[in-house]
Amino acid sequence: MVSFSSKLFRTLLVCGFAVTVSSVDAQDRPPVDPAKVDALIQGMFTRVSPEWRARAVLDDTQRACTERRNQVSGAEADAIQARERASVVLPPDGNFLGDWRKGFQVANNGRGLQFSDPAGTVAGGNCYACHQMSPKEVSYGTLGPSLAGYGRERNYDPELIRDAYIKIFNAQAAVACSNMPRFGSSKVLTIDQIKDVLAYLFDRQSPVNQP
C-alpha cells in the first residue's frame, strides 16, 4: 500500500480529489483555509485571458456546495434553486423540441471551451460522458443515470419536457448541488442546442426511445 503524508493528502484535498487514505488520521488534519485555496487556484490562471480567470472564481452556489461538500440544508437548497431558477431562459417561441439528429451530434460532441480548441469551435454537451442515451450505444459514462427510453417512459409529457429543459439549462435550478453542468446559464450550449438535445431525449423517432 502506498503511504501518503498528511501534507500530500491536504494537497490532494485542496485540488479537489476525493481520496481515502487509511494512514492519515482525519483528526490530525487542520481545517482547509478557503482563502488559501482561492489564492492557489487563482495563481494557476495568471497567464490566461480574463474570461478564463473568471471561471476560477466560485459563485455563491459553487461556494456553498463546495464548502459543505454538497450537504446543504433544506433552506440552503431552496435558496440555491430559487437563485439559479432566475437564470433560466425559456425558448422564446415556446417550443422545447428541436431536431433529434442535431441533438445526437451535441450529445456526442465533447469539444469547446478548452485551451486547445481553435477560436470559433462550437461546444457540445458531451452527454455520453455521463449517461447512456441510445440503448444500442456501447460506450458511455455512468456518473449519471441511464437515459435510455427517457421520453417513452415519461409518455412524452409536455410538462416533463419543460422540466428537462430547465434541468439541462441549469441543473442547480432543479437539484441543489447537482453534479451536472449548468449548460445554458454558463453559455456552454445555446437554447437551440438544448432544444435539439431535448428532441434526442423526447422525440418518438429518436434512437433513445427505440426498444
Strand content: under 5%
For the sheet with most strands, the description reads:
none
Helix/strand-derived class? Answer: mainly alpha
Low-confidence stretches: 1-24
Please state the CA-atom Rg, rounded to the nearest Å: 20 Å
Q: Total number of helical segments?
A: 9
Order of helices and strands: HHHHHHHHH
Q: How is the quaternary structure best described?
A: single chain
Overall pLDDT score: 86
Helix content: 25-40%
Kindly report how far apart the N and C termini lie.
Answer: 46 Å
The best one-word shape is globular
- The total count of strands amounts to 0
Present the secondary structure layout.
Elements lengths: L5 H9 L19 H10 L6 H6 L4 H8 L6 H12 L14 H9 L41 H4 L4 H12 L21 H12 L9
Helix pairs in contact: 6-9, 8-9
Describe this protein's structure.
The protein has 211 residues and is mostly helical. Helices cover 39% and strands 0% of the residues.
Task: Name a few traits of the molecule.
single chain; 211 residues; mainly alpha; globular; disordered N terminus
Brief summary of the model shown:
With 211 residues, the chain is mostly helical. 39% of the residues lie in helices and 0% in strands.
